[in-house]
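Suppose a colleague, Dr. K., hands you the sequence of a protein chain of 388 amino acids and asks what its three-dimensional shape might be. Before reaching for any lab equipment, you can write down a predicted structure in token form. Begin with the sequence itself:
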Amino acid sequence: MKTIKQSFLLLLCGIVFISASAWITLSADKLVNYAPKPAPKVQRLLYVATPGIRNYLGYGGHGIQVFDIDNNHKFVKFIKNPGGIMKKGIPSNVKGVDVSLATNCIYVSTLEAIQCIDLVTEKMLWEKEYEGGVDRISISPDGKIIYAPSLEKAHWNVVDAKTGDVITKIVTNSGAHNTIYGPDGKEVYLAGLKSTMLNIADTKTHTVSRQVGPFSAEIRPFTINGAQTLVYVNVNGLLGFEVGDLVTGKFLHRVVVEGWNVGEVKRHSCPSHGIGLTPDEKELWLCDGHNYRLHVFDNTVMPPVQKTSIALKDMPGWITFSLDGKYAYPATGDVIDVKTRKIVASLEDQDHNDVQSEKMVEIHFSGGKPVAAGDQFGLGQVRMTTRN
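The predicted structure, expressed as tokens, is then:
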């Protein structure tokens, strides 16, 4: 009798064990089936618009060269630009490049027009010519508005980024040239090639609200800090830069590069054409066209103090930085490690030819869609905690 009871208990325990095992297995399967999928890896790419050195096709052809930032800036692909053709049938100079995450498009401005290219399909959605031509454009932080300078003419066109339609026009009579949309979206900074004053436009009214300057000569490339309190400008005739107060409108400082001669330059007729802040704003990097150099300044003091210089393979006409501040991108196609000052890569197309351009922008993709973008200007990224 005792043996029968023991057998029954063993059988009962076995059933319980099997049932529990099955439940655990089923639960484990459910856990596996319902576990969240890992987030898609973010791909960081550098989009380089060409011809971005005048209309020289030898520096990258006609289109957009794309490079993998996390794979030693290796060539990824070439996106043909069906637009940007002059009436003579030759590709037009690229004047600017910018990105709107709101429309998922990259915009390329040429001498006469703007091309809108879908970043996913890589198809051109529209191309429109504008009165007076187009220079270096800038897009609002929300991606909806483009400020498009005419080509050294009297006005800026304010453009709908989705349609390309002109919303209004801002007349400054300053030789419209370089444009920076403020990070807070409230102001746009308008530099004319024929003026010593920097115009500031209110984005609610699309009218000039105030000016900064005068600077010592006509304004060329410029950049601003993230708090939108300081502007750093190249001016004609100066190997160096000047600083202005964006709040008071006053001229603050003139900084001259020491230890290097001023000489002839191949392009732009300006000793320093190209200036940018590292994203943390601790340094300012300055182009030197005659000496084929970048000069690095300590920007933690005011005025900034010269620290060192970096030799390049060609004349730099522009400078910007990666979003994380690790790399500097002069127009020469050299890729520079900001911390070590060493050239760590050189942009090359699929046939290993040099790619050079003064118009490039970083774009991040996740799941095949653009999720973040940098800027073409080398803007400071240190924001004020509060700003009215």
